[in-house]
Inverse folding.
């Protein structure tokens, strides 16, 4: 699994995903039913969108709602636990994949 820093480096060299500009305009994950295994896009600090998979439903973090994400190939729908290498992501920066 690539670590978060590798994902950020990869997205910074590839730029944003086509058609994803303006996704933050008046939209939140509260408007969809987020479930483990759902394919999502995570917005990075470098203004890129990284394709990942939700490993958990949204949950309350210390200061805001988060969802734990993993790479697509790390997700096992038959596993009883989320993958070992998951990344917490602010729910406001996650979108369902089109």
């Amino acid at each position: 699994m690539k670590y978060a820093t590798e994902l950020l480096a990869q997205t910074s060299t590839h730029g944003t995903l086509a058609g994803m500009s303006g996704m933050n305009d008046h939209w939140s994950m509260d408007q969809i039913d987020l479930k483990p295994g759902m394919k999502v896009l995570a917005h990075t600090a470098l203004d890129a969108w990284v394709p990942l998979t939700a490993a958990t439903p949204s949950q309350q973090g210390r200061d805001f709602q988060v969802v734990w994400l993993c790479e697509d190939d790390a997700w096992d729908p038959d596993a009883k636990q989320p993958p070992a290498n998951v990344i917490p992501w602010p729910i406001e920066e996650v979108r369902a994949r089109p």
Notes: The longest strand covers residues 49-54. The chain is about 10% helix and 25% strand. The first helix runs from residue 4 to 14. Residues 4-96 form a domain with the SH3 type barrels. fold (CATH 2.30.30).
